Sequence to fold (267 residues):
Amino acid sequence: MKSYVHGYQARENERLQDQAGALVELLHHDTVYPAGSNVLEVGCGVGAQTLILAQRSPDAQFKSIDVSAESIGKAKQKIAAAGLTNVQFEQADIFDLPYQPESFDHVFVCFVLEHLPRPREALMILKNILRPTGTITVIEGDHASTFFYPDNVAAHAAIESLVKVQAQAGGNALIGRQLYPLMLDAGFDNVKVSPRMVYVDGSRPDLIDAFTRKTFTAMIEGARESAIAADLVDPQRFDEGIKALYRAAERDGVFCYTFFKAVASKR
Ligand SMILES: C[S@@+](CC[C@H](N)C(=O)[O-])C[C@H]1O[C@@H](n2cnc3c(N)ncnc32)[C@H](O)[C@@H]1O
Fold:
């Protein structure tokens, strides 16, 4: 893996927790695994989604992996603190999985394909470790789905600079729109994609704080140094853009972003 664009600092860990917490109902009201099934969660990070998965399907067994040993350590603590016993963690790379073919009933991947240089290959590897009746769930964002009021060109430039930083690191921050063709191309069947729009206005102060400010704007802010170092945006323009995103998080502002959730079967 080339350098992971969001990094592993404490602020990013908090951002992942805020993101997961803010989006539980929108992304997971239909994420439930049957009792007795074994599920592989790929790229679990600090366990923000793991907690939701394990709580919602207490009788399923989860194996959660990440390439970062440090993140795995934090995820373990989080799950133990919640008193959950249905998750095992392992440090592993998607491109070098230590599992036999057909070892899992289900696979879950959230905000990971966007960081991979070869997402189609990753999906094919995941298909191989699924049992014949298995399913895969993939959730990804698409940063170009962002719109807000008041609109501001500098804010779009700041967002675009993160898209470019991520592309230079081998990823694709616009991958959400591509899930359907990608999954078909990787050989999955019954691919169903549903767009999940987060709509935030002044009537939802909880989402203004947890999503507009602490998830999305914090993510763009986190790209400041790398975007400026790579000469992808002028520092003043970037800062003006961030200010405008915070402006859209005021009580008379509006913010929209769309995630894409795909569910497919092996055959
Ligand atoms: C944006 S985080 C998402 C974490 C978690 N799924 C969530 O939604 O909170 C992406 C995670 O993918 C992991 N990752 C990136 N490339 C990977 C690879 N090749 N194999 C396993 N994990 C990987 C990173 O270490 C990081 O923890």
In short: The mean pLDDT is 96. The first strand starts at residue 38 and ends at 42.
